[in-house]
Amino acid sequence: MDRLTERKTSCWIKTKSKKDYTNYTQDWEAINKLAHYEDLEEQLKKVYGECDGLLETVAKHLIEHPEVEIGNPQKARLLTDEDVDKWERWKEADKEGRLLEFLCCVGDILYKPTRNFISEYRVVFIEVSTCNCIFFHTSLIEGINDTGEIFNEDCIGKTVFLTHEEAEAKLKEMEKK
Fold first, then answer.
1. What is the pTM of this model?
2. How many other CB atoms sit within 10 Å of the CB of residue 107?
3. Does 94 reside within a domain?
4. Is 71 found in the same domain as 124?
5. Radius of gyration (Cα) for the chain, nearest Å?
6. Torsional sign, CA 20, 22, 27, 30
7. What are the beta bridge partners of residue 121?
């Protein structure tokens, strides 16, 4: 849509109308607001190109999805088509039980309270068994290797920990017993 206003400076707006608006405060407020909306529309066009009704589409989407928080930049972030395609694939994989989220990554360190100190293990690979159990294969960095180097996912947070602080707290708890 063609602009109905034209910004001459940051505070002076010219309209395509021949009417003199200098004495009409209410008209001036309406023209200023119209210029602001036209500026917003131009900003959207710079990002998305020529898209008729884009502002209305965005407003309609926000009305239909009130849970979207514009104040939260992570939720308000614009996604590319590739991001949306990836998200759709992940949603489908999750629905079909093909998407797994691991508690840690290869290279992470796991901490295990062992005999009055904390043993450290580096995750070297992750195994998913045929019964969908997740095992973290590790190598000992420091400490005592008293239970082997493979930890089941169920151990994490109980006997093996993701942070040194959690392991220290568990060690203190064990010493009290």
1. 0.55
2. 8
3. no
4. no
5. 30
6. positive
7. 110, 140
Residues 74 and 10 in one domain: yes
Residue 86 in domain: no
Residues with Cβ within 8 Å of residue 8, at least 6 apart in sequence: 14
Per-residue pLDDT tens listing for the chain (177 residues): 577 677 666 555 665 665 655 555 556 677 778 888 888 888 877 877 777 777 777 778 778 777 766 665 555 556 667 888 898 999 999 999 888 889 999 999 999 998 888 999 999 999 998 888 899 999 999 988 766 689 999 999 999 999 999 999 999 988 887
Are 166 and 124 found together in one domain? Answer: yes
Convert 42-110 into a string of H (helix), E (strand) and C (coil): HHHHHHHCCCCCHHHHHHHHHHHCCCCCCCCHHHHCCCCHHHHHHHHHHHHHHHCCCCCCCCCCCCCEE
- What range does the domain containing 37 cover? 5-80
Do residues 138 and 112 make contact, with C-beta atoms less than 8 angstroms apart?
A: no
C-beta neighbour count of 21 within 10 angstroms: 15
Residue 125, token pair as written in the block: 């690979």
Domains of the chain: total: 2
Residue 58 shares a structural domain with residue 123: no
